[in-house]
Hints:
Layout: E1 29-33, E2 36-46, E3 56-62, E4 65-75, H1 78-90, E5 99-107, E6 110-118, E7 122-123, H2 130-151, E8 164-165
Antiparallel strand pairs: 1-2, 2-3, 3-4, 4-6, 5-6, 7-8
Amino acid sequence: MQDDNEFPVELPIEVxxxxxxxxxxxxxxxxxxxxxxxDMLEIIFLSQGLVGHGSICYLARKDKEEFVIKDHWVLGGExxxxxxxxxxxxxxxxxxxxxxxxxxxxGTSWTHVHLVLKPCTRPLHKFCSKLELLSSxxxxxKIQKEVVEECKVLYHDCSLNNAxxxxxx
Length: 169
């Protein structure tokens, strides 16, 4: 007969730490978008190469609230730069699609674009388990399907570089 105080399975002693629930990092710089200043906490994504849009995404904080800021260049003026912004607005409310909080455009033949987005997320390459990676990929497929069917938007820039993991809670 087994003793009630004896537990037959040994549980792991360490509970994995949630990377988004750690103490906030110290700022690495500041970025101004319109008349608002954000503390840049870390670089989430940085495009590489000689050709491209010079995209960089930051985890940022303003007034104790965290955001993702996408900073990039668009070939063309305001009309071309507004394509992504209008698409984000059209997809607003779709579960899993970041919400556009504000934007800033500057330029003429090349337009410098800042997008402030919520919620804060992690890049796909920072998955914590195989299950989280596979679940995230399945969610991305479901989101793409919903965006096409419900919002009539075909997002053409799908890549591992802009796929994200949104944590529950």
